[in-house]
Structures are given as C-alpha cells and as structure tokens.
Amino acid sequence: MKLNRNYDNVKDSYLFVEIARRVAAYSADHPDAKLIRMGIGDVTRPLAPAVVEAGLKAMAEMGRAETFRGYSPDSQGYDFLRERISAYYARFGVKIAPREIHVSDGAKSDCGNIVDMFADDNTVLIPDPVYPVYVDSNIMSGRKIIYCDATEENDFAPLPDEKVKCDIIYLCSPNNPTGSAFTKEQLAAWVDYARRQGAVIIYDAAYEAFITDPDVPRSIFAVDGARECAVELCSFSKTAGFTGVRCGYTVVPDELCGGKFAKMWARRQSTKFNGTSYIQQRMAEAAYSEEGIKQNMENIAAYRKNAALISSALDEIGIYHTGGKNSPYIWLKCGTDSWTFFDRLLNDANVVGTPGSGFGRNGEGFFRLTAFNTYENTVAALERIKKIL
Length: 389
Ligand code: PLP
Hints:
Layout: H1 15-29, E1 36-37, H2 49-62, H3 79-91, E2 101-104, H4 107-114, E3 123-128, H5 132-140, E4 144-149, E5 168-172, H6 184-197, E6 200-204, E7 230-235, H7 237-240, E8 248-251, H8 260-272, H9 278-287, H10 290-316, E9 321-323, E10 329-333, H11 338-349, E11 351-352, E12 354-355, E13 366-370, H12 375-388
Parallel strand pairs: 1-11, 3-4, 3-5, 5-6, 6-7
Antiparallel strand pairs: 2-8, 7-8, 9-10, 10-13, 12-13
Helix pairs in contact: 2-9, 3-9, 4-5, 10-12
The protein binds pyridoxal-5'-phosphate.
Pyridoxal-5'-phosphate binds next to helix 4.
C-alpha cells in the first residue's frame, strides 16, 4: 500500500486545531479565566422556532410505522426542499430550477467533494487570504495552485488578471475571512474572465444572508453568463444556525459543460453519499419558509448589531479594519505578526480570535474577529480589548 503523498504538502495542523491547542493550554494554566470566543465562525443563537417545530414534527413522523422514512429516494435531496430552495432564490430574482439543486450535509463537504469533478492537472486560482478548505482539498489531490492577492489596496476584493491562466477559480463572497464582498460589476469581471479562459468558478455563498449592500448580489447567478461557468455552494449553517444540524446545497446549472457537470456531480453523490436525513431536510425547508426566514433574519440582525459594535470600538481606538457590513467577520490590522497578536489577546484580554496568517500569506499582520458571540460577551470582549490596546 502506498499513502497519498500529496498529504505531505498539507500543513501539519488545520488552523482551528492549533487555536484549540493554544486555548486548551492557556485554560489548563488559568482554570478561572473567563474566555470570550470570537475565533471560530460558529453561531451561538438557538434555532428559529419554526425550524425546531419542523424538526420535532419530522422526528415524530419517523416514530410511526405509517410515516417512517429510511434512505431518501434520491441522494440529491427531497423535492420539497429543492423546491423551497428554488423559491428562496426567486425572492432575490434568481431563477434556479429544483433539478439544479443538490442537497448535502454542508458546504464544507461539498467543497471537499467537488474536487472529484476535476482532472488533477488543472490549475487552481485562489484569492489569498482564503478559507483554508479550498487550498487543502486541492493540495490533497496534487493540483497546482496559484494565488491572487486580496489586499488593503484592492479592499480585499481582487479582480482577475488576464495574463494569469487557470482552470478552476474559487471565489467566496461575502468573504471568509476578510468580510469583503464583490459587487455585481466585479463579479461580472470574474465571470467574463472565466468564460474567456474556459475555467469554472466555484462560488461560495455561505454568508449570502448577511448581505445588506444592494450592489452586492446574493448569488453569482445574478450575473449574466454565470450559468455557463459557475457552481454555487451554499449552506444553512450561518443563514439559519445549522452548524450543529448540518445541511447545505450545491447549485449546478444545466448549461455548465453542456450538462455534463450536473450529471457527473449527481453520479458522484449517488455513489459516495447517501443523502441528508429527512429530519434535517424538513428543518431546512422550514428555515426557508416565510416564518423561518423572518425568524432567522432576527438572529442575523443580532449578529449584525455585534459586528457594528466591534467596528465602532475599533474606530474608537483607531485600528484599520474592514468587513462587518455584509458579513459577520471583522478583519483588522493588528500591527504585529498575527500569532503574537493572538497570544496577546488570549493572555491579556482572555479573548480568542483568529490570526490572519492562518488564512494565507496576505493574512499576516491581520486578525479576524467574529460577531457570532452574544451581545453581552461582545460588549465585555470589546471593553477588555480597548483596555489592552
Ligand atoms: N464556506 C465558508 C466560506 C465557510 O466559512 C464555512 C464555515 O465556516 C463553510 C463553507 C462551511 O459550511 P458548513 O457548515 O455548511 O459545512
């Protein structure tokens, strides 16, 4: 047996594993410290009542012989959920047919799995800083990766460079970690570039529900020509607090590779994936009901309030930052190397954030705070941060 040697090229420890290690070591030495976590992008608010009710109802159905369900008839997802997701897109004027929607257990799985669609000798273009999964999943398959720079100069929203040749492009908007978001015009530049290159865009829209700016599209399919060159990954995790429930979906338009991509993706999923549970799918359906959307938007409004609070505290102490407007992430310039800043915040303020260098070369000197904690904890953390800075 030979191991996949491409794994030798993946960094030893995933970013959040290293953070957890340092936090555990600090907590062991300081058992009474009251840490406030603004590091990992995990939600804290409970599920919307409409979602809980749907989950309980689905669970009760599973407990009765007449309504019990086993494997779902199609690993692509139940019709009721794909129709509901299609209607969700229609709310912001994007036409996606239910057959183009593939339900999964989350966007991270889809991200890791979609690389199966591509030949190993494709070249991948990724903006840096980056959600690390795009990089690691391609390193694991041995693909060549080139980076484009997302920096303070381009407001962390880089545009394509015609001289750069690639086959697969990753875009994440609103962005994790920088909180930047592409306008429709900027996305159109990427779509045109991808079509000229014969490349595919893997578009990660996990944070679309946080968008407030009318110039920023909720989906890449709001842009003309995107149906010919893009796949969209989305998730209920941040929109509806499903980080512990698990449900996401991929949109593969009919036009992509003349329909071949959708066929291959469905084939891959039906071979390697047995579908998301009936209960999760009923909960996801409820998350995109009128009532569910209203309740989820109340949760998102609470996170937005935290983001605004973080932003104004940083303004007060004169720290350059971006994000927070269309995103739950605030990306701040820390003026030192980012792991040193991480340790300083942990040791002196008992606040856990995420060092920017964990997201790539351009993340060095930056730091990510999330707005996902409670209002009270956010206020307390900012008081502590203000004191030490
Ligand atoms: N995509 C991005 C950009 C994310 O930040 C995350 C989670 O933090 C995911 C995908 C993963 O989403 P899920 O919980 O659906 O796996």
